[in-house]
């Protein structure tokens, strides 16, 4: 591994050149096995994750136990001691970085290293920080020494950039440390022939972008901080531009796709429904409703994202859209992620429509329509009856789970697909429902997870976006508090607070991370810098403990995803009717469950949930006239990332701010759909929050370019570059929303 040029050829290198031809078989195999790098292009686009400076040493005072580090440090002392417990010697060196802090490096039965690890030598040391009798140490670290006393010109080629320059630190593996990667990159760059710049000259000039060859060299071997900034900016631009070109192209194609116009009909079901509403629509519901109505009236498919805070009235907006389609002679399908939510939607929409949803029944309005529910748990006779109504068009509105996707579910004239909580469905599932229409239907995607503007622009860029930020009149505020381990009395007070709410005639939720204990389950192994954790609390364990302890005498029921469908429905009905005081549940209640009398939620092991999930969960309380309270119970102590996340949730009910916090703590690749694809991706540098201005600029340039040349026929190199950065799987992911 120390010689990355074993048996390598020295011809010109391009992005498609196999690494074995440049670095030799042994090194290439290690890079392929441990880092999934196969070609020169893969390696060149394996960018440093940060840069160290010889003059600004890494501050060793901030190192944390369990952290994987790469340090630039100087040997300060060295000693060889016999080991106490077994035969042999231990070499111990002390290193420092100029900050005043020191670190011990230990090597067992490797006394020969004393000859090179001499006092005063500088080097890079990599390993995991451990604690031994109160002292921080690296046990058997990998290291790369710098030239002892040579001038910069005389220094060995592989370490020349360490003498006062920016030092790239790469995402590495134990078998392939960062300096080996740096050697390999240098070797490739020595013969690298950069591709012709795919960006149009006008775009480069407009945005003051350096050439691609310069950018790729400077990001690995920066000559200055200014040059590094310019290189990063150019490469980030390429990533943003590729995504935006893809999305703008797809939006343009969608605008030209023939569809079926579903205009608003005067005096139809929608008009009767609006006239019978017992309350006024919020301004947001009215304006968003007009946007959707205008889209539905166009002769090409709507593809719109409707986002809004929990309880902002998205379902009502979708019902009005569905009625507009029914008025025009079509059908609408509402796809929900769980049976509980599908049933809840069915029941809620039935109540909203009243007689308008019971056409053909004794008490129904003959000018209305019929509503039907299709789930996997329907009995054979009920399923046949429901599918017959779907097939002949009797059912104008169809609510269901993924059971709607099965073969044998045929629509008479599917005009609108409403997808609730789109992140719960795979791309293929959503697309399968759209394929059930004779012509592409209109699509309305709903989410209660607020999305920052740049995320919406990047991930949902081919959807028009509508936002509901107002809460309906009468909706009460929700107060949130962390129940921390350092205040054990707070947990007792939490249960007391719940009892007070029940005594006042209200109801409560207790949420746990999982359903039940697995046999033989042990503590979770510790993460870096974290102690071992017990298994997450389970609904089936917590419910009896509460019934026998702090909630004795209250009516407690259990709800989770593994209960039979009829039992889940019975539990929810009992809770909705007020026959249950406390519902102990998993996240099955996260979306759609609407019981206005619920005022308290206690979330156990709250640190096991994500920010957006916590925000969704607490939206289940405070849905009536009484204020809601959400208590986040945790064992996470102050100063940990998990505790900071909970404190942030407790501090604000601004879903957009919380979504930014969530994004900051997640891998951007997940947001961009990288987890949807098993293929190698080059979307590396772009930050959806930090690079918002760049993304906006890239969007503007992409819109102008596609407006002039929809298929990029004038720019074949750019089209190929876009295809490389946004592969077909990701393109489909972005397109299908």
UniProtKB/TrEMBL annotation:
<keyword id="KW-0234">DNA repair</keyword>
<keyword id="KW-0067">ATP-binding</keyword>
<dbReference type="Pfam" id="PF00271">
    <property type="entry name" value="Helicase_C"/>
</dbReference>
<dbReference type="InterPro" id="IPR047112">
    <property type="entry name" value="RecG/Mfd"/>
</dbReference>
<dbReference type="InterPro" id="IPR033454">
    <property type="entry name" value="RecG_wedge"/>
</dbReference>
<dbReference type="InterPro" id="IPR027417">
    <property type="entry name" value="P-loop_NTPase"/>
</dbReference>
<dbReference type="Pfam" id="PF17191">
    <property type="entry name" value="RecG_wedge"/>
</dbReference>
<keyword id="KW-0547">Nucleotide-binding</keyword>
<dbReference type="Pfam" id="PF00270">
    <property type="entry name" value="DEAD"/>
</dbReference>
<protein>
    <recommendedName>
        <fullName>Probable DNA 3'-5' helicase RecG</fullName>
    </recommendedName>
</protein>
<dbReference type="GO" id="GO:0016787">
    <property type="term" value="F:hydrolase activity"/>
</dbReference>
<keyword id="KW-0238">DNA-binding</keyword>
<feature type="domain" description="Helicase ATP-binding">
    <location>
        <begin position="295"/>
        <end position="468"/>
    </location>
</feature>
<keyword id="KW-0347">Helicase</keyword>
<dbReference type="InterPro" id="IPR045562">
    <property type="entry name" value="RecG_dom3_C"/>
</dbReference>
<dbReference type="GO" id="GO:0003678">
    <property type="term" value="F:DNA helicase activity"/>
</dbReference>
<keyword id="KW-0227">DNA damage</keyword>
<dbReference type="InterPro" id="IPR012340">
    <property type="entry name" value="NA-bd_OB-fold"/>
</dbReference>
<dbReference type="GO" id="GO:0006281">
    <property type="term" value="P:DNA repair"/>
</dbReference>
<dbReference type="GO" id="GO:0003677">
    <property type="term" value="F:DNA binding"/>
</dbReference>
<dbReference type="InterPro" id="IPR001650">
    <property type="entry name" value="Helicase_C-like"/>
</dbReference>
<keyword id="KW-0378">Hydrolase</keyword>
<dbReference type="Pfam" id="PF19833">
    <property type="entry name" value="RecG_dom3_C"/>
</dbReference>
<dbReference type="GO" id="GO:0005524">
    <property type="term" value="F:ATP binding"/>
</dbReference>
<dbReference type="InterPro" id="IPR011545">
    <property type="entry name" value="DEAD/DEAH_box_helicase_dom"/>
</dbReference>
<feature type="domain" description="Helicase C-terminal">
    <location>
        <begin position="490"/>
        <end position="669"/>
    </location>
</feature>
<dbReference type="InterPro" id="IPR014001">
    <property type="entry name" value="Helicase_ATP-bd"/>
</dbReference>
């Amino acid at each position: 591994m120390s010689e990355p040029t074993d048996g390598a050829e020295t011809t010109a290198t391009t992005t498609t050149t196999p690494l074995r031809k440049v670095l030799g078989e042994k090194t290439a195999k290690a890079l392929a096995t441990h880092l999934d790098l196969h070609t020169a292009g893969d390696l060149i686009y394996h960018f440093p994750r940060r840069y160290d400076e010889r003059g600004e040493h890494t501050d060793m005072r901030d190192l944390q136990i369990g952290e994987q580090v790469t340090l630039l440090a100087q040997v300060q002392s060295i000693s060889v001691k016999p080991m106490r417990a077994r035969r042999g010697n231990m070499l111990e060196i002390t290193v420092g970085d100029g900050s005043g802090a020191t670190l011990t490096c230990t090597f067992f039965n490797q006394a020969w290293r004393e000859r090179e690890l001499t006092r005063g030598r500088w080097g890079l040391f990599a390993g995991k920080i451990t604690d031994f009798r109160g002292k921080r140490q690296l046990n058997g670290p990998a290291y790369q020494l710098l030239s002892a006393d040579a001038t910069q010109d005389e220094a060995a080629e592989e370490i020349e950039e360490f003498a006062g320059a920016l030092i790239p630190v790469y995402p590495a593996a134990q078998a392939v440390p960062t300096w080996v990667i740096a050697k390999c990159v240098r070797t490739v760059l020595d013969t690298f022939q950069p591709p012709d710049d795919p960006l149009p000259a006008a775009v480069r000039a407009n945005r003051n972008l350096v050439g691609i060859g310069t950018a790729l060299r400077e990001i690995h071997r920066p000559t200055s901080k200014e040059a590094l900034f310019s290189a990063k900016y150019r490469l980030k631009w390429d990533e943003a531009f590729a995504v935006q070109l893809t999305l703008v192209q797809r939006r343009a194609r969608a605008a030209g796709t023939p569809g079926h116009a579903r205009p608003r009909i005067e005096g139809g079901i929608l008009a009767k429904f609006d006239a019978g509403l017992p309350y006024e629509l919020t301004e947001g519901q009215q304006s968003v409703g007009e946007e959707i109505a205008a889209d539905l009236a166009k002769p090409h498919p709507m593809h719109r994202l409707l986002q809004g805070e929990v309880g902002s009235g998205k379902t009502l907006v979708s019902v009005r859209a569905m009625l507009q389609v029914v008025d025009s002679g079509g059908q609408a399908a509402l796809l929900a992620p769980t049976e509980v939510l599908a049933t809840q939607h069915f029941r809620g929409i039935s109540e909203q429509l009243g007689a308008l949803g019971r056409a053909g029944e004794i008490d129904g309005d003959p000018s209305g329509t019929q509503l039907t529910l299709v789930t996997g748990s329907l009995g054979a006779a009920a399923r046949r009856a429901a599918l017959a109504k779907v097939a002949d068009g009797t059912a104008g509105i169809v609510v269901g789970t993924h059971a709607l996707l099965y073969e044998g579910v045929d629509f008479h004239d599917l005009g609108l697909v409403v997808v609730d909580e789109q992140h719960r469905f795979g791309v293929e599932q959503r697309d399968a429902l759209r394929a059930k229409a004779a012509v592409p239907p209109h699509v309305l995607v709903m989410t209660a997870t607020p999305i920052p503007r740049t995320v919406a622009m990047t991930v949902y860029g081919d959807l028009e976006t509508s936002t509901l930020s107002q809460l309906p009149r009468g909706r009460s505020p929700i107060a949130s508090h962390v129940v921390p381990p350092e205040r054990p009395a707070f947990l007792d007070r939490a249960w007391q607070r719940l009892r007070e709410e029940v005594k006042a005639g209200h109801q409560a939720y207790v949420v746990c991370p999982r359903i039940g204990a697995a046999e033989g389950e042990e503590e979770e192994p510790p993460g870096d810098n974290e102690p071992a954790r017990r298994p997450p609390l389970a609904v089936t364990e917590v419910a009896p403990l509460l019934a026998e302890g702090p909630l004795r005498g209250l009516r407690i029921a259990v709800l989770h995803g593994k209960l039979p469908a009829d039992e889940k429905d019975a539990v929810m009905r009992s809770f909705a009717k007020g026959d249950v005081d406390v519902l102990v549940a998993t996240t099955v209640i996260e979306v759609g469950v609407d019981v206005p009398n619920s005022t308290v939620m206690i979330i156990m092991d709250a640190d096991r949930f994500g920010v957006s999930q916590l925000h969704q969960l607490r939206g289940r309380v405070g849905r009536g006239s009484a204020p809601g309270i959400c208590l986040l119970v945790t064992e996470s102590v102050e100063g940990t990332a998990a505790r900071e996340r909970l404190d942030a949730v407790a501090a604000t009910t601004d879903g957009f701010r919380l979504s930014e916090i969530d994004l900051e703590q997640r891998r951007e690749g997940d947001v961009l759909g990288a987890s949807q694809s098993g293929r190698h991706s080059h979307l590396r540098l772009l930050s959806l929050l930090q690079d918002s201005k760049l993304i906006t600029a890239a969007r503007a340039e992409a819109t102008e370019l596609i407006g002039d040349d929809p298929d990029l026929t004038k720019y074949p190199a750019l089209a190929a570059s876009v295809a490389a950065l946004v592969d077909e799987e990701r393109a489909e992911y972005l397109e299908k929303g």
